[in-house]
């Protein structure tokens, strides 16, 4: 064994996005590409937080193609850079929430998560590398900016010429002076869930005959869902499907929504199951369905969990310090916060804003329309945890998911919600739509007064957020058209698209009328959808008459 210093050429495209560096596998496979990014990450963390010599990091990912190769590179480079210990999930596997939980529980310096979340995997699909900091959350902009800066100036990296480590064998091995500790990827997370929830009550509920159908979409949620639902809660083996992580997710798109989790939707529509859930590739997103395919929008999901928090043992014990949603998320949560008289925060899209509020002790529960729900038990969103929250509310109330939602709407009114995605439009067309909507700001004379639905605009703005924990201002986070009845139309350009621009149009239509809650969401939302298309002139400016995806 020995450490080598290898000369390298900098790459100019290693700028991490909000969720790390995501590129095609073939990009990561270029000679030195992965090595450079790992060295830039180690150098950046060293510069900002002090030496990593002797430190412990967690490493693991969602099982996608190129994971084993990336982990061997990380082991050899970590050893050469004098890191003290790596805690790696067996076979390189860890869900994103499990890494966050492990960092917090063992007070590690940080972790490296290998995933491209809900993007497809395979030799021609996506891979990703993301650094999480000591609070268990994604690295903030200051860290990712420094990684990018380091990557642009990199001339060499350090690597050990040690042999590959067998990732399948639990226990400790030494690489140079570093210990590699291979652990069961589920143990620590399952223990945490047992601390948060009442597993005896859940087990009794499951054995009372409630039928579960949990689809892991061949992502990393499988081993976690099997352990929790089958081994610990006694559900039948076949209650959890697609539970073996596959490098290509079985050729599917591991994203839990009505389009990509169609098998789950179809299974639920047969009426054979009471509770359905799906998770994305790295198990941080979730979708919840009730009997006959009854769909819980992510915006409603976080609002219901907040309203019913007393059925979730650790939230009941600790109380809700505050709740939060991202700006485009339907505003159902706002009404619950008002009723509970607790702090409420509307933050920009992206999980990092929640983490700051949690660290400050001001946020217990949060969610995003993009199928993310989470709490201060970790600093990432958490799919399997969200499903346990829902099961707890069902067990506690004795009601079906549909009954829980109906009651919620009767109490608070219903925020009908939909998102239209126009993918792969040109950047120019995307900008033109935003410019057109932006022209409504401060120009009251241009606001329509004769909308057939009676909707009247109360305000238009470009969302700006001041983080109450550190005063940092984040501006231009999406255009909001707010109506006098609280309904909203939002336009935003996606921050995660890979080519051209993706326009997201979000419609949040508030209705308080007991007779209206069971109507088809598409029908209820039609007037505002039409108004949004008219106000943005979207069809003319983009040439698109239909969105690519409706969720
Ligand atoms: C990632 C983040 C989420 C965020 C989403 C937004 O998944 O983890 O927190 O909601 O991106 O994506 P968009 O494409 O709308 O910018
Ligand atoms: Zn994810």
TrEMBL record:
It catalyses: O-phospho-L-seryl-[protein] + alpha-D-glucose 1-phosphate = alpha-D-glucose 1,6-bisphosphate + L-seryl-[protein]; alpha-D-glucose 1-phosphate = alpha-D-glucose 6-phosphate; alpha-D-glucose 1,6-bisphosphate + L-seryl-[protein] = O-phospho-L-seryl-[protein] + alpha-D-glucose 6-phosphate. The keyword Phosphoprotein applies. Its EC number is 5.4.2.2. Keywords: Carbohydrate metabolism, Glucose metabolism, Isomerase, Magnesium, Metal-binding, Phosphoprotein. GO terms for biological process: carbohydrate metabolic process; glucose metabolic process. Its cofactor is Mg(2+). Residues 14-156, 189-293, 299-412 form the Alpha-D-phosphohexomutase alpha/beta/alpha domain. GO terms for molecular function: magnesium ion binding; phosphoglucomutase activity. Belongs to the phosphohexose mutase family. The keyword tRNA processing does not apply. It is an enzyme of class 5 (isomerase). CDD domains: PGM1 (cd03085). This is phosphoglucomutase (alpha-D-glucose-1,6-bisphosphate-dependent). GO terms for cellular component: cytosol.
């Amino acid at each position: 064994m020995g450490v080598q210093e290898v000369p390298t050429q900098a790459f100019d495209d290693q700028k991490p996005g909000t969720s790390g560096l995501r590129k095609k596998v073939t990009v990561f496979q270029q000679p030195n590409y992965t090595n450079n990014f790992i060295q830039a990450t180690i150098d950046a963390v060293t510069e900002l937080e002090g030496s990593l010599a002797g430190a412990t990091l967690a490493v693991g990912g969602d099982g996608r193609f190129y994971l084993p190769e990336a982990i061997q590179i990380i082991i050899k480079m970590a050893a050469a850079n004098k890191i003290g210990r790596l805690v790696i999930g067996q076979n390189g596997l860890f869900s994103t929430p499990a890494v966050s939980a492990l960092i917090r529980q063992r007070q590690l310096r940080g972790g490296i998560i290998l995933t491209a979340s809900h993007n497809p995997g395979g030799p021609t699909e996506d891979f990703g590398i993301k650094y999480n900091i000591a609070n268990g959350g994604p690295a903030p902009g200051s860290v990712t900016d420094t990684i990018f800066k380091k990557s642009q100036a990199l001339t060499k990296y350090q690597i050990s010429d040690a042999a590959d480590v067998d990732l399948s064998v639990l226990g400790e091995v030494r690489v140079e002076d570093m210990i590699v500790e291979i652990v069961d990827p589920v143990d620590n997370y399952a223990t945490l869930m047992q601390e948060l929830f009442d597993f005896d009550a859940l087990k009794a509920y499951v054995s009372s005959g409630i039928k579960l159908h949990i689809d892991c979409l061949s992502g990393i949620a499988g081993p976690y869902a099997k352990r929790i639902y089958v081994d610990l809660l006694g559900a039948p083996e076949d209650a959890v499907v697609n539970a073996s992580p596959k490098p290509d997710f079985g050729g599917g798109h591991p994203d839990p929504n009505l389009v990509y989790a169609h098998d789950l939707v179809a299974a639920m529509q047969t009426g054979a199951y009471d509770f359905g859930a799906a998770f994305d590739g790295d198990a941080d997103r979730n979708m919840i369905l009730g009997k006959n395919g009854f769909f819980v929008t992510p915006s409603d999901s976080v609002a219901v969990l907040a309203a019913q928090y007393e059925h979730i043992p650790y939230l009941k014990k600790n109380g809700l310090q505050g709740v939060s949603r991202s700006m485009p998320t339907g505003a159902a949560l706002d009404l619950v916060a008002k009723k509970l008289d607790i702090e409420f925060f509307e933050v920009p899209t992206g999980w990092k804003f929640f983490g700051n509020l949690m660290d400050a002790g001001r946020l217990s529960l949060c969610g995003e329309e993009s199928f993310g729900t989470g709490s201060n038990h970790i600093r990432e969103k958490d799919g399997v945890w969200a499903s346990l929250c829902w099961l707890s509310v069902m067990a506690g109330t004795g009601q079906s998911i549909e009954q829980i939602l109906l009651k919620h709407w009767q109490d608070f009114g219903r925020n009908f919600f939909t998102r239209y995605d126009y993918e792969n439009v040109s950047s120019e067309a995307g900008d033109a739509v935003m410019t057109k909507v932006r022209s409504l700001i401060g120009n009251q004379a241009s606001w329509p007064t004769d909308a057939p639905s009676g909707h009247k605009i109360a305000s238009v703005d470009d969302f700006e957020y001041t983080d109450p924990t550190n005063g940092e201002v984040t501006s231009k986070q999406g255009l909001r058209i707010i109506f006098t009845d609280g309904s909203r139309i939002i336009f935003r350009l996606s921050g995660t698209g890979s080519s051209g621009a993706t326009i997201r149009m979000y419609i949040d239509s508030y209705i308080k009328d007991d007779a209206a809650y069971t109507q088809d969401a598409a029908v209820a939302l039609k007037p505002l959808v039409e108004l949004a298309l008219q106000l943005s002139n979207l069809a003319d400016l983009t040439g698109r008459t239909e969105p690519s995806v409706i969720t």
